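User: Quick sanity check before I run a bigger batch. Here is a single chain. Can you write out its predicted 3D structure?
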Amino acid sequence: MISLAPLERSQDHTVAHIAPFPDQILFVGTVEEIFREPPDRFDLHQILMETAPGETTPVGVFKIDRHYHISFPVAPAGEIGMRALIIDSRVQGKGVGTAAMRALAPYLAPLYPQASFVYLTVNFRNLGALSVYAKAGFENTGDTWPHGAAGPQAVMRHPLRSPTPAEPT
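Assistant: Done. Predicted structure follows.
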């Protein structure tokens, strides 16, 4: 069972063990880098895996950029962006990323009621991440972000709420 939860900056020691595979650092960075982000713009979150009934262990982290459009003008003002998703290398390939991304919209919607979508960019060479996001319901917007540290990136988004049925006319 996978769940998502806020990550307080004082909890850095609880997620310090999380590390991607070395070749993924170029795409996602490190946990230490996530904690250096300014709290006035970025909220930190953790991915928890149930290890025993009632017990969970952090197996991933990500940050939500409340002002995503400033760095990524492909997203409208007011929308949020997910950045630096890191899944610990020891649990990759076990469905953790897909389960976490499927839980993302219901988790984020009440925390960010002003936003309609969560956006992200993912490097075109990061085939594993592209697959996970697609399986979890992210749609490719058709835009390309050409300024990624590791090269061009696809712009994807996921609605935070189900569409409201149209009023009968």
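The first strand starts at residue 2 and ends at 6.

User: Great, the batch can go ahead then.
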